[in-house]
Design goal:
Elements lengths: L9 E5 L2 H4 L12 H4 L2 H4 L2 H6 L1 H15 L6 H12 L4 E5 L5 H4 L5 E3 L2 E8 L26 E5 L9 H10 L2 E5 L11 H7 L3 E6 L11 E4 L2 H13 L2
Parallel strand pairs: 1-2, 1-6, 2-3, 6-7, 7-8
Antiparallel strand pairs: 4-5
Bound molecules: adenosine-5-diphosphoribose.
Adenosine-5-diphosphoribose (APR) binds next to helix 1.
Length: 236
């Protein structure tokens, strides 16, 4: 791949692997979340209709857990890149934790939602939310007891696909960090980027399902690979 410093418009896709070294479970690795819980029980609209307590308890547990975790060196390196990069840059994260922002990154888009907001299905607004939802607390904006986790469940449309596609059209470099490439539409971004002429780089612990679409793949922990790559891009 050509020298990193020559690129101007960068899209960075992150997944659970970027937060793994902060102590947040990934989904599909050994002992991961989807080994502990069935997707059908906790991460679909049907599951919520069938057993809302089970679903709310699952997200209450995760919402409380992420607030005890800290950003790691990968989050900090990406925040540094975001604060100094003169060109276009968008961190498209599949993660629902706030570690990118707590590290200082600003150009972040949560395509699968966020733990620290709730979605009121009565007024369709998303108030900041750090506590549990199991007691069905009233929406702080409209008073209705209609709050649900602001997380995109399987079968639901991810957030801001227009914004993501616009960034991909502009990008001359697409970088994927800590994702298995198991879930669409995120898993298809590398192909779109490649077909639009962008260079493509994967930073991951192991090869993802979409590895063959990347011009370059670097294997290792995010806390090592990401700071190294950011140094390269910033040329210092
Ligand atoms: N450093 C780099 N990569 C890592 C690390 C690490 N320390 N630890 C794990 N990984 C890699 C794994 O090798 C794997 O490829 O991160 C990836 C995590 O994959 P998943 O658990 O499948 O998570 P992700 O790709 O983010 O899942 C996508 O699926 O369940 C849904 O909505 C959920 O956003 C999620 C989506």
């Amino acid at each position: 791949m050509a020298a990193m410093a020559q690129y101007r418009n960068i899209v960075i896709l992150t997944g659970a692997g970027v937060s793994a070294e902060s102590g947040i479970d990934t989904f599909r690795s050994e002992g991961g979340l989807w080994e502990q819980h069935r997707v059908e029980d906790v991460a679909t609209p049907e599951a919520f209709a069938r057993d809302p307590d089970l679903v709310l308890r699952f997200y209450d547990m995760r919402r409380a857990a992420i607030q005890t975790k800290q950003p790691n060196a990968a989050h900090h390196a990406l925040a540094r890149l975001d604060s100094t990069w003169p060109g276009n840059l968008l961190i498209v994260t599949q993660n629902v934790d706030d570690l990118h922002e707590r590290a200082g990154a600003r150009r972040v888009h949560h395509m699968h939602g966020e733990h620290l907001t709730a979605w009121c299905t009565a007024c369709d607004r998303r108030p900041r939310w750090t506590g549990p939802l199991i007691e069905r607390p009233p929406c702080p904006l409209c008073g209705a007891s209609a709050l649900r986790p602001d997380v995109v469940w399987f079968g639901e449309m991810p957030y801001g696909m227009d914004r993501i596609h616009a960034a991909l059209r502009e990008a001359d470099l697409f970088v994927s960090i800590g994702t298995s490439g198991a879930v669409y539409p995120a898993a298809g971004f590398v192909r779109s980027a490649r077909e639009l002429g962008a260079a493509t780089l994967e930073l991951n612990l192991e090869r993802s399902r979409g590895s063959s679409w990347f011009v370059e793949t670097r294997l290792g922990p995010a806390t090592e690979l990401v700071p190294e790559w950011v140094e390269e891009v910033l040329g210092c």
